[in-house]
Amino acid sequence: MRFWLIALLLIPMPARSETPGAALFLRGEGAEVAINATIDMPATRFSCAGCHGADGAGRAEGGTVFPPIRWSALDVAGYDEQAFIRALTEGITPDDRTLSRSMPRFKADRQLLAALADHLRTLDALGGITATEIGVRPSGDAALDAGFIAAIARVNEDGGAFGRKLVVTEEENAGLDLVAFARNQWAKMETACLAAAIAAIRDDGHRTLSISGVANDDVVYRVRAAGLKIDPAAQAVLHIGTEDHVAPMRRSHFGCIDQLGPLAASLVQDGGHVTLVVPDRQALVWAVSSRRSGQEMRGYVLGSMIGRAALTAGRDLTLATLTEAAQNLTISTELVRLSR
Predict the structure, then answer these.
(1) Which residues form the Cytochrome c domain (predicted)?
(2) Which of 129, 144, 142 is nearest to 13 (CA)?
(3) Cα–Cα distance for residue pair 228/205, rounded to 1 Å
(4) Rg (CA), the chain
(5) Which of 148, 208, 237, 319 has its CA 20 to 30 A from that of 32?
């Protein structure tokens, strides 16, 4: 089974694209905002979904009411595309009122803001969550979807989420988009895997490590926070890229399966000791026992996460509460040790 694990190498996400408008809405990508007309910040700290909900239906939080921003609601309020862009950039409504200072003023290309308006129009068509079902749109990648379907079958066998079953829906713009969900969640998994790899180096008794790949400030901070020092001659190697930059002999190699996985077989063959970090114990067991690919394992991880998020969101489930519950999930990791 040890060498079968080496073959469980996660491959890139399917290339189905996310619109620039959706990326700006969900994560604030591509724009800046002005706070009090004096301080410019990346809009990633002030995403539309963060205040108005992932479904654009609005919500109340801490005494502040964030209104709905689906296009149907904006249309009733007198917005057309030009008025919408003016409100975002100048803070002026169609009836010439000034928006609250809690609403940031956006600095972005007009074409990007028009794409955001297009995305808000799609929110009116969101559905897929009923009293008995939670719809998820597949990715279009056969392997990823196969793993996802296997995971939600297990969730449904265990009772689903408060009477709702997870189902695959092909209806356009209905339910949760698996590709968008994966894109939002995988960065969290990579962070959790990195933390687990650094902890494993420390727990194995190493005090120094070398780094294979280009370490940014965050990686350096995490290494130092763990009480470790960076030394190019160290026996423990932390892999943060997919290319091997160090001699494998007599080295101990640590890293996430995405980065270290493609190198694992050759490193083990050359006498190295490899510690892979995978993001879900149950997904690993399923993949190994049924001899599934790494991409299928990735789909299984995502299906399990959606199941957990649906349970966490509670009985009064909406797309917004499901998305928020998923963002707050704790990511579990599994260490897999490989050697000759």
Answers:
(1) 16-153
(2) 144
(3) 10
(4) 23
(5) 319
Q: What is the DSSP letter of 77?
A: T
| Residue 267: C-alpha distances to residues 104, 154, 249, 274 (Å) | 50, 35, 8, 7
**Interatomic CA distance for residues 333 and 165, integer angstroms:** 26
- The amino acid at residue 41 is M
Q: Report pLDDT digits (tens) over 53-93.
A: 877 878 777 778 888 898 878 888 899 999 999 999 999 99
- Of the candidates 10, 310, 303, the one whose C-alpha atom is nearest the C-alpha of residue 148 is 303
Residues in the chain: 340
Beta bridge partners of residue 22, listed in sequence order: none
CA distance 299 to 288: 14
For range 230-245, the mean pLDDT: 82
The torsion defined by the Cα of 236, 241, 242 and 248, in degrees rounded to 10, comes to: -20
Residue recorded with tokens 């080295």: 251
CA torsion, points 303, 308, 310, 316, in degrees to nearest 10? Answer: 180
